[in-house]
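Lecture notes, unit on binding sites. The following record was shown on slide 14. It pairs a sequence with iron/sulfur cluster.
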Amino acid sequence: MLTETDKYNVVQAPPGVEGSGFFATSLDKAVGLARKNSLWPLPFATSCCGIEFMATMASTYDLGRFGAERLSFSPRQADLLMVMGTIAKKMGPILRQVYEQMAEPKWVLSMGACASSGGIFDTYSVLQGIDRIIPVDVYIPGCPPRPEQVIDGILRIQDLVGKESLRRRNTPEYKALLAQYGIE
Ligand code: SF4
């Protein structure tokens, strides 16, 4: 029996397509389901965290189980930028260029202390967090994070991807977020 609240949330199926054998969903949810289970990561690995990522891809942890088996080293054919390792300030413009070359929709995962905050390298030459130059969706803590943590980060990204509205990338809020980084 529907409650008063349900009556406003549930859309009744039109005649002829109700009952068993039919289900109704929204385009947002169908596209979100497809996107979240077919991520194409671009591994931007610069140091030791990258090795831990290799372990995550290998047979024991097997990231392919989550639909993210196909790694891309071309930004045009990737939708998840995974930054792992120490990012020197000199490398900042390259990382940003890679991000800008990726087509929308795209997501960013920052793996490990170095990528997220500079880690132990509080020096003049190391970027103190990639979120100073590009927006980040999920951070994975640790030095290095274990493969289980990497998988947890991927699951969180999948959660975001699956729930993202198709309209989000055209909203003023998203444009304002990019504008903060000087990205049009
Ligand atoms: S967080 Fe630790 S393991 Fe990862 S790149 Fe930095 S120093 Fe290496």
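Take-home: Residues 47-49, 85-86, 112-114, 119, 143-144 surround iron/sulfur cluster (CB under 6 Å).
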